[in-house]
């Protein structure tokens, strides 16, 4: 059986993860993610999907983040009728993520049309809430560690990736031909809430992510949060946290709770201003198969590990807008994590000009996003068609990152009992991908290449 692999996204960048596996006349997608970032990258979302969706037999999804799942509504809209395989946690999260994405795109398009700041007339959503809903009947959830049929002759297996709730590495056993393993996004060891990444013993072809493939995470996240909150409270302004609704918000709430109880930070009012993050936080408590021991013990004792002392959830738009009238120190956690939409933009529009404000960037900021622009020292930020002056303090902490750094990736690779015949480095900007490939070649001696955008490779010699 002739087999090939084509990299359709998530190469040379950390967005748009999508890998096309051809097995004879059958087609499988590993992830189907949305492109985010600069205009020329986001425009790829509007192009025809390859292969034609009606030809795709199945999708295997590593986890629920939008850059891995966000184009599923387009896939279904354009003719895909097969199963989408994922873990139980991912299935629950995807239902929230895609609904929220569809709703936000409808709202953003409507706002752009009202105020006339779109380059396109009329502005249209990439997909709607109804089109996102159409994905959900296609989801097929599977437990970690239990093989499942992807299609005849191809068996799948999920193992914990430790990145977010439900995140998994993907193993595909293709008849007697061999095994393909996709790391998805790898997490870190000894982090709160969810379990450590599980190692994979062997693969013939390996796809390894490289988001932080050229660096090591600096410092302890809790200590960084302690220092930042203490200083910001003394300054007297609000702390605005662009929320990655899945994973980062929950770890931040956990960390704030622990620091409060230890008396290491002042007790401030905390507002979770993200309906999606609120739903996700509830879901995190309902999946014991992902919980680490500390999370389990607190839940068993009927304590809420993801709730600070003065904690409020804002659900309605009016409640969100009222937060801009608050004075004094407080923490506002609001979507979205790279400032590419959501309620956080309204808060920044009001508070960026105030030098007492602190903006806490707690995760990776993609090239061309507002978050990256702030991180790089932008003096103004374009929000809703206006140039907003930046006088706030902008801080970045890496200690809460849910992505493995170079050393942690190498630790995970050390679990293989034999070298893969071929390793492809994906999901990283080119400097990071190249650095990781060089480290793998030098330390492990494996055959390794950095995947190219839309590159196709024949797997006949590998599988």
Question: In words, what does this structure look like?
Answer:
The protein is an alpha/beta fold and 463 residues long. The protein folds into 2 domains: 270 residues, Metallo-beta-lactamase, Chain A (4-Layer Sandwich); 176 residues, Rossmann fold (3-Layer(aba) Sandwich). Helices cover 30% and strands 22% of the residues. It contains 14 helices and 22 strands. The protein has a 7-stranded mixed sheet with strand order 6-5-4-3-2-1-22. It has a 7-stranded mixed sheet with strand order 7-8-9-10-11-20-21, covered by helices on one side. The longest helix has 28 residues. 49% of the residues are buried. The mean pLDDT is 93.
Outline of the structure:
With 463 residues, this protein is an alpha/beta fold.
């Amino acid at each position: 059986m002739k087999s090939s692999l084509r990299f359709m996204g998530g190469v040379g960048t950390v967005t748009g993860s999508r890998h096309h596996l051809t097995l004879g006349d059958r087609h499988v997608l590993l992830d189907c993610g949305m492109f985010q970032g600069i205009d020329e990258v986001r425009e790829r979302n509007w192009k025809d999907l390859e292969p034609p969706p009606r030809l795709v037999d199945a999708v295997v999804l590593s986890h629920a983040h939008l850059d891995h799942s966000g184009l599923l509504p387009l896939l279904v809209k354009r003719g895909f009728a097969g199963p989408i395989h994922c873990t139980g946690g991912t299935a629950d999260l995807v239902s929230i993520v895609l609904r929220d994405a569809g709703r936000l795109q409808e709202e953003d398009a409507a706002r752009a049309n009202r105020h006339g700041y779109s380059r396109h007339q009329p502005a249209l959503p990439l997909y709607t809430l109804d089109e996102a809903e159409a994905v959900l009947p296609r989801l097929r959830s599977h437990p970690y560690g239990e093989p499942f049929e992807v299609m005849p002759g191809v068996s799948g297996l999920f193992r914990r990736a430790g990145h977010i709730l439900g995140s998994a590495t993907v193993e595909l056993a293709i008849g007697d031909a061999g095994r393909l393993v996709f790391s998805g996004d790898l997490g870190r060891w000894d982090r709160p809430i969810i379990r450590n990444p599980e190692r994979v013993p062997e693969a013939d072809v390996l796809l390894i992510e490289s988001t932080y493939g050229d660096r090591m995470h600096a410092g302890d996240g809790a200590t960084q949060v302690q220092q930042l909150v203490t200083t910001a409270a003394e300054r007297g302004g609000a702390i605005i946290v662009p929320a990655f609704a899945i994973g980062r918000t929950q770890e931040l709430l956990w960390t704030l709770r622990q620091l409060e109880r230890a008396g290491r930070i002042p007790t401030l009012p905390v507002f979770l201003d993200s309906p999606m993050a609120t739903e996700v936080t509830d879901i995190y408590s309902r999946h014991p198969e992902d919980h680490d021991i500390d999370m389990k013990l607190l839940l068993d004792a009927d304590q809420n590990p993801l709730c600070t002392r003065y904690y409020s959830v804002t659900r309605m738009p009016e409640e969100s807008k009222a937060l801009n009238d608050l004075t004094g120190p407080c923490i506002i956690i609001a979507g979205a994590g790279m400032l590419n939409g959501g309620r956080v933009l309204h808060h920044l529009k009001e508070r960026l000009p105030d030098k007492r404000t602190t903006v806490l960037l707690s995760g990776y900021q993609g090239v061309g996003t507002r978050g990256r622009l702030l991180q790089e020292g932008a003096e103004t930020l374009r929000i809703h068609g206006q140039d907003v002056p930046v006088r706030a303090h902008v801080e970045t902490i890496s200690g809460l990152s849910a992505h493995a750094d170079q050393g942690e990736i190498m630790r995970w690779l050390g679990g293989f009992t034999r070298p893969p015949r071929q390793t492809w480095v994906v999901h990283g900007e080119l400097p990071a991908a190249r650095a990781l490939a060089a480290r793998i070649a030098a330390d492990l001696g494996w055959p390794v290449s950095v995947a190219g955008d839309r590159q196709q490779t024949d797997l006949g010699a590998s599988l």
